[in-house]
Amino acid sequence: MRRKGLMRRPGAAVAVLAVLAAVVAVVVVAARRTAATATEAEQQPAPGTTAHDVRQDPEKVRDHWTPERMREAGNAPMPKRE
Predict the structure, then answer these.
(1) CA 47 → CA 5, 39, 51, 82, distances in Å?
(2) Contact 17, 10 (CB under 8 A)
(3) Is 46 left (phi over 0), alpha (psi -120 to 50) or beta?
(4) Which among 70, 12, 1, 81 has a CA at the least distance from the CA of 43?
(5) According to the 3-state scheme, what is the secondary structure of the chain?
(6) pLDDT tens-digit profile of 36-54?
(7) Are 13 and 6 in contact, with CB atoms under 8 Å apart?
(8) What pTM did the predictor assign?
(9) Could you read off the pLDDT of 5-14 as tens digits, one per residue?
(10) Residue spans with biased composition (Basic and acidic residues) (predicted)?
(11) Longest dimension (CA), the chain
(12) How far apart are CA 11 and CA 1, in angstroms?
């Protein structure tokens, strides 16, 4: 009886399974990292944060922020992680 496919070479089936296992491991690790990143990005802001629309004339804003004011400006306060 003639052997077909991977059965012609005794070690071929083991090699194919090893490569398949490695590919599955890489996909699982990538999926977990993506899931961990996604849950961090979807967290809701802490209580007490605010948001508002700013509707200022862009030309007035540009005229206000002169080079001197830009040099003297401080950093905007950022929320602190607990």
Answers:
(1) 63, 18, 12, 12
(2) no
(3) beta
(4) 81
(5) CCCCHHHHCCCHHHHHHHHHHHHHHHHHHHHHHHHHHHHHHCCCCCCCCCCCCCCCCHHHHHHHCCHHHHHHCCCCCCCCCC
(6) 665 555 566 667 666 777 7
(7) yes
(8) 0.36
(9) 555 666 777 8
(10) 52-72
(11) 89
(12) 20
Q: Which two tokens stand for residue 2?
A: 């003639």
Q: Which two tokens stand for residue 47?
A: 């209580």
Indicate the residue type of 9: R
Please, what is the end-to-end C-alpha distance for the chain in angstroms?
Answer: 70
Distance of alpha carbon 9 from alpha carbon 50, whole angstroms: 67
Q: Name the amino acid, one letter, at 38.
A: A
CA distance 6 to 10: 8
Give the integer Cα–Cα distance in Å for 18 and 50: 53
